[in-house]
Amino acid sequence: MKRKLDANDVPSTEAPEENNKDAGEPSFEDLNLDPRLRQALIKENFTKPTLVQSKAIPLALEGKDVLARAKTGSGKTAAYVLPILQTILQKKSADPSLKATTGLILVPTRELAEQVQNVITSFSAFCGKEIRSVNLTQKVADAVQRSMLSDFPDLIVSTPSRVLANLGNSALSLENLTHLVIDEADLVLSYGYDEDMHALSKAIPRGVQTFLMSATLTSEVDTLKGLFCRSPVTLKLEDKEEEGAGVSQFIVRCAEDEKFLLIYVIFKLQLIKGKVIVFVGDIDRCYRVKLFLEQFGIKSCILNSELPINSRIHVVQEFNKGVYDIIIAADEQEVMGAPKPSKKSQKADKEDAAENKDDSDEASEEESQKTTRPDKRRKVSGKDKDYGISRGIDFQNVACVLNFDLPTTSRSYTHRIGRTGRAGKAGMALSFVVPSEQFGKHRPTSFPTAKYDETVLAKIIKKQSKLGQEVKPYHFEMQQVDAFRYRMTDALRAVTRLAIQEARAREIRQELIKSEKLKRHFEENPEELRQLRHDGELRSARVQPHLKHIPDYLMPAKGRKGISSEDVGFVGIRKTNENRIRKARDRNRGKGKGRKAGGKVDPLKTFNRGRPQK
């Protein structure tokens, strides 16, 4: 190997910088994991551990309790799954006949439970039948769940309420538990699991190794730390980029009805390209926006707590595969900025949306909201209390987060924009802000939380500036889109309250049917996606075919560049599908192939019966 020469042309004894850099960076080989786990990591394209993985895994393998704060998408799931699997494999090699539930992973939502279960399945792919895991949040019969637990799976993934229910009917035993994980720990109590967690703390044996994983360290995390941990090692990890870094953040100040005008123009003229998550305030708002976009032939999926769990998981999976480009999501955990209910009412109101308790530096923000906002927690029997969209779910390659309705806290905003700009990729966050003087001017499109947009925006700008990020105005030339206003008004007129109610009921019926098909092993026919697509037209609103096409006279003189000064783009939202067979047929017609030019076709003369068989 060539040695590096110094300024005097003398060979240097120092290793090259690149080698030093590689030597300083840990690898999965350095963690002394089981070869079967390393093989699975290679298959899943895990090349180097992330910061939280390189710090937490060695501590976990030493048997220490770990409390880790790391941003969303930093690899926290692998940081606790790998050491637990390593420990189980070591115990199985020492005692092959061992059958006991030794690991329990608690998560706040069913979507996150499914995601963790998939990670466990991937990492244990080469372990044969030595690793068995069960997801208790699956909606199966109690008898089926008891049968699954009777085989003593090594790992259980669940929400706290499901674990407690199975402990109550003696289907589950935790007497041999050695590992406990509470993922998204700052959300578990906020989602109404306060009493459940206190009950579990009495049922879990003493001396269990505990992992608390969280994006923020709040009072909820301190409570769980006191209940379950023994002098944990606290890791406050910040990667080179803070939450929201790599994300270009923009705001547009507009009237309430102009939100609909802008989202129409943005998607129809492809001003923003790539996969987009549109956050709205509640479930009705989901259907209002979807029905509005349908008027213009723009397809989208809906994601909210009323839909069956199988449908929600399938929507996320297909979105990650690129089947869908637009998801309209109701971020219901912070609807109306509702204060956290008292302990006495938590049990009765678990189906309600609970406001996430803010960080200590935002405590005053919460208090001011409690005094200025009405305590309206919407009770809807069809809601799933284990639902959450802005946290935990692994959305891949999201180009843009569009805050159609601004969240009620700066903390919620940070978590929302964390859906984009992940894994070193760039992303964009665009938020619509209604000025206070414009609120209530257009009642059909008004939303209650918009009254506080200006106050919340000031806190968002302040918090993002602390993180070194800038929230910039996104300049739309509104004069250029004035020609589209009458179309927007016409479309909104068709999206009535009755149409929204019918669409909501119809969507639930359709998704229940699809959910049953998914439950009956949809993987047997993976190509038959058409009947299970989630972006079909609801057609509850009055259909106006002329709105789906933009005539040339409506287009701005300068084209798309005349509307916006920003040029943001990834991959086009819509693919231009050309029918090659039809084009070839038209070309052949022009050449006169198969017929006489200008004349009619005589079927008797053009018929070719082929050569007779011998």
The total domain count is: 2
The number of helices is 22
CATH topology of the largest domain: Rossmann fold
Number of strands: 14
Return the structural class. alpha/beta
**Beta fraction:** 5-15%
Alpha-carbon Rg, integer: 28 Å
Oligomeric composition of the shown chains: single chain
The whole-number mean of residue pLDDT values reads: 75
Q: List segments where confidence is low: pLDDT < 50 over at least 5 consecutive residues.
A: 12-23, 241-245, 334-381, 567-577, 593-598
Ends distance: 75 Å
The appropriate CATH architecture of the largest domain is 3-Layer(aba) Sandwich
The helicity comes to 25-40%
Task: Describe the sheet with the most strands.
Answer: 7 strands, parallel
CATH C-level class of the largest domain is Alpha Beta
EC number: 3.6.4.13
Protein name: RNA helicase
Domain Helicase C-terminal: 246-479
Domain Helicase ATP-binding: 57-235
Polypeptide structure, described:
With 614 residues, the protein is α/β, with parallel strands linked by helices. The protein has two domains: 29-236, P-loop containing nucleotide triphosphate hydrolases (Rossmann fold); 247-341 and 352-562, Rossmann fold, CATH 3.40.50. The chain has 22 helices and 14 strands. The protein has helices at residues 17-24, 35-43, 51-61, 76-94, 110-123, 142-150, 160-168, 185-188, 194-203, 219-228, 256-268, 283-294, 309-321, 343-346, 363-372, 410-417, 453-466, 478-481, 485-494, 497-519, 580-591, 603-606, and strands at 66-69, 103-106, 133-135, 155-158, 179-182, 209-214, 233-236, 247-253, 275-280, 301-303, 326-330, 398-403, 427-433, 471-473. Helix 13 links the parallel strand 10 (301-303) and strand 11. The radius of gyration is 28 Å and the shape is globular. It starts with 16 loop residues before the first helix and ends in an 8-residue tail after the last helix. Residues 26-54 form the DEAD-box RNA helicase Q domain. Its main location: nucleus.
